[in-house]
Amino acid sequence: xxxxxxxxxxxxxxxxxxxxxxxxxxxxxxxxxxxxxVRDNRGWYPVHEAAYGLHADCINLLIRHASIDVNLRAHDGxxxxxxxxxxxxxxxAVVEAATALLDAGADPNLGSLDEMPPLIAAIKVRNxxxxxxxxxxxxxxxxxxxxxxTALHEAAAVGDDATVATLIAMNVDLFAIDDDHLTAxxxxxxxxxxxxxxxxxxxxxxRAAELANMTSTDGGSCxxxxxxxxxxxxxxxxxxxxxxxxLTVSPVWAGPNDCQDGGVHxxxxxxxxxxxxxxRLIMPHVDLxxxxxxxxxxxxxxxxxxSSESIEIxxxxxxxxxxxxxxxxxxxxxxxxxxxxxxxxxSALREAVRKGQEEPALLLMDAGAPLTYASDCYSPFLFTFRxxxxxxxxRAFLERNVDLNLICQGSRCQVPDALLAVLxxxxxxxxxxxLKCGLKPNLQYWCSCRNTGGYSLLHExxxxxxxxxxxxxxxxxxxxxxxxxxxxxxxxxxxxxxSGKFKHLDGIRSLQELCRLRIRENVRPSELLDDRWMESIDxxxxxxRQFLCYHTYxxxx
Length: 557
Description:
Elements: H1 13-20, H2 23-31, H3 46-52, H4 56-66, H5 80-85, H6 91-103, H7 118-124, H8 128-136, H9 151-158, H10 161-169, H11 184-191, H12 194-204, H13 208-212, H14 222-227, H15 232-240, H16 266-272, H17 276-282, H18 288-293, H19 298-305, H20 308-316, E1 325-326, H21 338-341, E2 345-346, H22 348-354, H23 358-366, H24 391-399, H25 417-423, H26 431-436, H27 457-462, H28 470-479, H29 493-498, H30 510-521, H31 525-528, H32 542-548
Helix pairs in contact: 1-2, 1-3, 2-4, 3-4, 4-6, 7-8, 7-9, 9-10, 9-11, 10-12, 11-12, 12-15, 15-17, 16-19, 19-20, 19-22, 22-23, 23-24
């Protein structure tokens, strides 16, 4: 049955007069003997209609002429007084109508079937005058709604500091919890009700820290819920009374076998959303050992979110830049990518690069974050080749002389990880930049002759949909290959791919090419970038300068 929709055919004449507030018609109907106890389809009596419309005169007429029971309840259990208390406008009229019912004996503690009492309904709409009236007429300040929710909880939730002060003066229990173990202080911190927090902490006196450290069923504390939405004023009050900032929250993804002493630290939550003012207040009180055991690395979540200010605060606070965080399982089809992109851990720098957060990446690099890893942890550098990653991040790695030719443990072939990462992406326009900065193709390990288990990188690359013409790719790699011979002669696999692809090498003698490569091998990537190494070399003929810098090379990618 729909208790929210009213049908005219089910409403009595007395009820209709009360609905529109027509006192004269109501008086005549009552004097003529019309009944005042006829219910409509919702179970509303005429007194409900008068109460809902805030028609105090109609209420008084019903009381005088019909001797009605003002505590009659509708189908949903709502008495007339509750309907008045739920009104969010015309507060003077609300108080007048409520006074009429209370004078006639309305029960100030009678709620609906969902246990909503009039007092909490009045607090919910922030009608402090009505709250005072109800309390003066016998409303129980300790009454609860469903789930153990008290009047103080509701006042804290809506930020009604006047009602909070009134309830505190009536000695309500500050330590009362609902079924989720939430205190009213917790609720006030969650909603950022600074003055309410101040009032309750002051009222708690010597037990203020104890109150602040009471946790919800998931381990959440007042400090945590205040920080997760950036309520720094609440944090300031909590820290001042000695609230524990190291209480962790059980994450929503936690299962029965997850680490019980881990949890999510408030520092990680504040860092993720870049609430740096909260961090400034919290960090001096953080136990770094507890933080190290928590589920999330604050630097990693801050890096992923681009929270540069938070990263600076965390670094100042002594957080290590090389912390490893457990990574979800990642299954890859391309076999040569598994050793480099299927690892159990990741770092904060990897998160910054993966999300394209340039400023956080630079901050972490400057703080000494490892640029590459040979095993276990993802190499941050290898994520610079993804689509939509700012080129400035790649340049930052090169300027810091990242090891371009690192080969990780477990690699299927002795080819640098950086080259494999580029081959595994659709974004290879940076390949020539890497080659110019010293990346070695190691073509002698592309065929099946020298790799364990007869693995052929060339065969797998040829079968990738996005590689395009494999012979064009190999011709570019040959250009930068520093071996004594251009094509490995162990088998015909490479020569068959490169057949007829050497026109761009005409006129360049092998000795010239090898000399150029040998010279460039002794120059660091940061100096090879943008040909910076040539700036200190004078008196070179222009053609030789162009040759040494590959300016005469025309790529085929």
